[in-house]
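Hey,
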Amino acid sequence: MDKDLQRCLDLLKENDEIVRSNAESALLTVCQNILSHPNDKQFREVCLEDPIIEKLLPAIGAMECLFDIGFVEAADSLILPPEASLCKLLALENLLSENCSSRNNVIDNTAAYNLLPKTTDPLERALFTNIVHHFQSVFQYYENRLLQTKAKKLIPIAELEIATMNRMRELQERIKLSKENPETSNKTQFEENNIDVKELFLMELTHWFKYKFFTWVDSPRCSMCMGSCEMHKVVSSEDPRCSNVEIHKCTNCDAFVKFPRYNDPEPLLTLRRGRCGEWANVFMLFCCSLGYDSRFIWDKTDHVWIEVWSISEQRWIHVDPCEDVIDRPLMYEKGWNKKLNYVFAFSKDEVQDVTWRYTRDQPAVMKRRNLCSENNLLQFIESLNKYRQCSPNYSSSRRQYVIKRRVLELVELIRMPSDQMSDNDKSYQGRTTGSYKWRLARGEISQSSPGATYSWDISKYGETFHLCYSIVKDVYRVMDDDDRMIEEVSGWQNGVNEVQGGIFRKSESDWKMVYLARSPEAASGQVKWNFIITNPNLCVSTFHLRTVIAEYQGASVLWQLEAFFNNTEPSKSLVFSINDCNNYSTDRLEGSTKLTLTATVRGGQGDCAWQHAQLFRQSLENKGDRSLIVNIQLKKR
């Protein structure tokens, strides 16, 4: 090791335990941020007013460490120049990680159980005990420096940064085009200076986590014959890392298979499988290891996810890694048909009741919140927060920051549910992870047709309309003649006019494939896309379709095109069967003002018949897929 760096670390050891701990933690944060984002200027600069400096100044040797790894003084900050080597910084990060882990830099939160109020109501006590348990887990797992370092090594940061930059370029191009063509721009368009790179990276991280890192397991495969299993019973576990152990029984050879349900994310870094609890545990650890201010969300109706604090938007953003969904907090109530009651957030700083972010029906939720009085719940949460934020190693600057952040959140949460009524129920769909039978039993499948009644106004883009849909990214894009994106719509259901037969997006983690399929309970399913012309001076000239399908075991996917020639008389239409969806073109629609494209999936054999007719089947590795391409040429009347 470099002698100067060793001397600085030796000086650090001369400080009091709390001062040294705070300084080492601050130095470790600086090192990890730079190593995670080596080319990002904002992480190479530490302002003198930053809380990090407040932790470094009292510690002998702390500022010397910064200067030794290459930081130089600027007007009101310290900067690591671009040409500075990262070798020393990496060495310092490794040593600090070892020091923090050897000290077990995890707060002993067992005393929090002493804050449980005395109550004779077993339901109230069970709720409060669960709250303490989740609060304790934050320190036990997610703030463990050694575990964070281990998790971070598994994340392909360089690959995700490249994907982030590509996504940013697409957004910048979209913003540029919207400024050049304001008549075709989306009303929700944002400005270039509103793009947050960390949030774009979070999107890529969530997508990678779902499709490349973690695997959903309803029941494990039989270890004897590799047959399918079904749940048999649940038993307690002697392993402190597990909440319980599920015993599954093979439907073929009757062998029993154990499936431990780990609370501890460390073994899951190797196993990489489970249900929502395991998914949220590991993803929370990943976010913390990357420096995101994160918190674990527990929904008492049996689901978990996380939230990440957005510095640019000054609010908590909902992230569900199981669904690859970000910032859709009403998804559970509107799409999954959940009857929410209590939703709590747990971070290293606090516990918060965040139920009101996830509902628009406050009166109904209040009727279901009957496990304890609201006043008792509030007092208990406040006692936990006071306990945490008044602990000896909790800095005053962090306390003030958390208080300000909490005020911002309270302002957001006190808005009345009617403020969210404009968010259309039909833009949400039911749960996609887990078997259909499992989701149906939990009541987490939407009863409404998602995304129905949407129509594409093709005339607002001029005389050419180019639409592409990617099943992998689950996004529609309207392109111009130079193949530049004009508009983007996320979610297959948000671009369709009608859905029948419970069509849903199926992702196969084992085969790494994704497609649209009908509900297992439906004999057939149907999807319709509507294309209308609102400009009275234009009509259809030619139509071109290219798409991909997969048919197995006698199943079929049928395509049909209906053209309407007079909007005032819907009966005046022609229907065409599309025999070759791989490359279909026609000029027989000339003069029409509305088109309806229909795909029907049907047939198949056995219990998996619903899977034998697949729309847009693609490999999850195919990032540039165009599963559906519709080109429509218009002309003047």
